[in-house]
């Protein structure tokens, strides 16, 4: 779950004692002009949950209220990374001496929180990691002891931060606590600015909430940015199905999110391109017709993998739902089945007799056949 910059600053950084510039969220050019009159020279920034706003024309400097209004007029209503800009943040322009990067992220490799710092901020971290990987310092955090200011000092040592080192160390410790307290996947400040007057100020904030923690964070959920859905994804949401549309050509129906992602990984491993994420486990088999239509409505789909593995859920019940949907929709794309677990014998018989398709003994073989058929 993603958030716009102003939300991260107001709900997370400021309450934690991390300095942010004075700013006003505006939805009209006139409001932007009024904000600039009260602030002085400002930066007008598009509020969308996406990066590279500057490169997309979503950030402008304004010295006068008239310039702020003009900048807001150009930015509001524009499209950035698929989002239509409905708000701008009109924020005091900072006198910057130096920019650094600070973040805490969930690290898949170490299965732990990871604190990141770079003395070179203000650029995309992916670009920095590719061009200058040695400039990024990393600290894997033991969650049983946390991450304190003293740990930050160790991470920052030798970075030439001078008098600002202690303040930046404090920011890193606070970022980690925000990450823990708010069930984050990512909390990032880029840039964290060292100002000419000696202050350390967060000029941006990127926050990503772990979706699984939504029930624990109702205030944040209420402030989250709306999801950007394709037409097919929106249709899936209307039916209570989690459908994610991709640009591949091998469609997937599987029961359970884990098996679905495994199927996607195997397709990619063998050189194919998965066309979607969609699982029809639990009672979702009752929506098999909607689910199958979603997958096949993706114009890139050239073949389909149906992968069922039953434990408590019976694969013959799931297969029966897909078969009924198949007989109604009568798709032309070839389908390749792999069925294992509870009810597998009955499920295989159903697919063989009703669809005239022979399921594969191994998932890998079904995937390979689907990839070949999609070419």
UniProtKB/TrEMBL annotation:
<dbReference type="InterPro" id="IPR005809">
    <property type="entry name" value="Succ_CoA_ligase-like_bsu"/>
</dbReference>
<dbReference type="InterPro" id="IPR013815">
    <property type="entry name" value="ATP_grasp_subdomain_1"/>
</dbReference>
<keyword id="KW-0067">ATP-binding</keyword>
<dbReference type="GO" id="GO:0042709">
    <property type="term" value="C:succinate-CoA ligase complex"/>
</dbReference>
<dbReference type="GO" id="GO:0006099">
    <property type="term" value="P:tricarboxylic acid cycle"/>
</dbReference>
<dbReference type="InterPro" id="IPR011761">
    <property type="entry name" value="ATP-grasp"/>
</dbReference>
<dbReference type="GO" id="GO:0006104">
    <property type="term" value="P:succinyl-CoA metabolic process"/>
</dbReference>
<keyword id="KW-0479">Metal-binding</keyword>
<dbReference type="InterPro" id="IPR005811">
    <property type="entry name" value="SUCC_ACL_C"/>
</dbReference>
<protein>
    <submittedName>
        <fullName>Succinyl-CoA synthetase beta subunit</fullName>
        <ecNumber>6.2.1.5</ecNumber>
    </submittedName>
</protein>
<dbReference type="GO" id="GO:0005524">
    <property type="term" value="F:ATP binding"/>
</dbReference>
<dbReference type="GO" id="GO:0046872">
    <property type="term" value="F:metal ion binding"/>
</dbReference>
<keyword id="KW-0436">Ligase</keyword>
<dbReference type="GO" id="GO:0004775">
    <property type="term" value="F:succinate-CoA ligase (ADP-forming) activity"/>
</dbReference>
<dbReference type="InterPro" id="IPR016102">
    <property type="entry name" value="Succinyl-CoA_synth-like"/>
</dbReference>
<dbReference type="Pfam" id="PF08442">
    <property type="entry name" value="ATP-grasp_2"/>
</dbReference>
<dbReference type="InterPro" id="IPR017866">
    <property type="entry name" value="Succ-CoA_synthase_bsu_CS"/>
</dbReference>
<keyword id="KW-0460">Magnesium</keyword>
<keyword id="KW-0816">Tricarboxylic acid cycle</keyword>
<dbReference type="Pfam" id="PF00549">
    <property type="entry name" value="Ligase_CoA"/>
</dbReference>
<dbReference type="InterPro" id="IPR013650">
    <property type="entry name" value="ATP-grasp_succ-CoA_synth-type"/>
</dbReference>
<feature type="domain" description="ATP-grasp">
    <location>
        <begin position="10"/>
        <end position="226"/>
    </location>
</feature>
<keyword id="KW-0547">Nucleotide-binding</keyword>
């Amino acid at each position: 779950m993603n958030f716009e910059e102003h939300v991260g600053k107001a709900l997370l950084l400021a309450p934690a004692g991390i300095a942010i510039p004075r700013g006003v969220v505006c939805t009209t050019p006139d409001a932007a002009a009024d904000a600039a009159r009260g602030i002085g020279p400002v930066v007008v920034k598009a509020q969308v949950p996406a990066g590279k706003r500057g490169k997309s024309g979503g950030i402008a400097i304004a010295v006068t209220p008239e310039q702020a209004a003009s900048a807001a007029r150009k930015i509001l209503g524009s499209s950035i990374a698929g989002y239509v800009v409905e708000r701008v943040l009109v924020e005091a322009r900072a006198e910057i001496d130096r920019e650094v990067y600070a973040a805490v992220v969930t690290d898949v490799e170490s299965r732990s929180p990871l604190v990141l710092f770079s003395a070179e901020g203000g650029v995309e971290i992916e670009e920095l990691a590719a061009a200058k990987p040695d400039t990024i310092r990393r600290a894997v955090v033991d969650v049983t002891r946390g991450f304190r200011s003293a740990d930050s000092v160790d991470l920052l040592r030798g970075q030439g931060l001078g008098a600002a080192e202690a303040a930046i160390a404090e920011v890193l410790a606070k970022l980690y606590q925000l990450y823990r307290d708010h069930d984050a996947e990512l909390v990032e400040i880029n840039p964290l600015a060292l100002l000419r007057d000696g202050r350390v100020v967060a000029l941006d904030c990127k926050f990503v909430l772990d979706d699984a923690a939504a029930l624990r964070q109702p205030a944040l959920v209420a402030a989250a940015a709306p999801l950007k859905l394709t037409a097919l994804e929106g249709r899936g949401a209307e039916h209570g199905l989690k459908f994610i549309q991709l640009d591949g050509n091998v469609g997937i129906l599987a029961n359970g999110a884990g098996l679905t992602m495994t199927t996607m990984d195997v397709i990619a491993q063998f050189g194919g391109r998965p066309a979607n994420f969609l699982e029809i486990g639990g009672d979702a088999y009752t929506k098999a017709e909607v689910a199958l239509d979603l997958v096949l409505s993706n114009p890139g789909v050239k073949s389909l993998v149906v992968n069922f593995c039953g434990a408590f859920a019976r694969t013959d019940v799931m297969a029966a739902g897909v078969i009924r949907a198949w007989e109604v929709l009568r798709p032309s794309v070839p389908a390749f089945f792999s069925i294992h677990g509870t009810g597998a014998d009955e499920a295989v018989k159903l697919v063989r007799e009703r669809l005239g398709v022979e399921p594969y003994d191994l998932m890998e073989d079904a995937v390979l056949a689907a990839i070949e058929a999609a070419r």
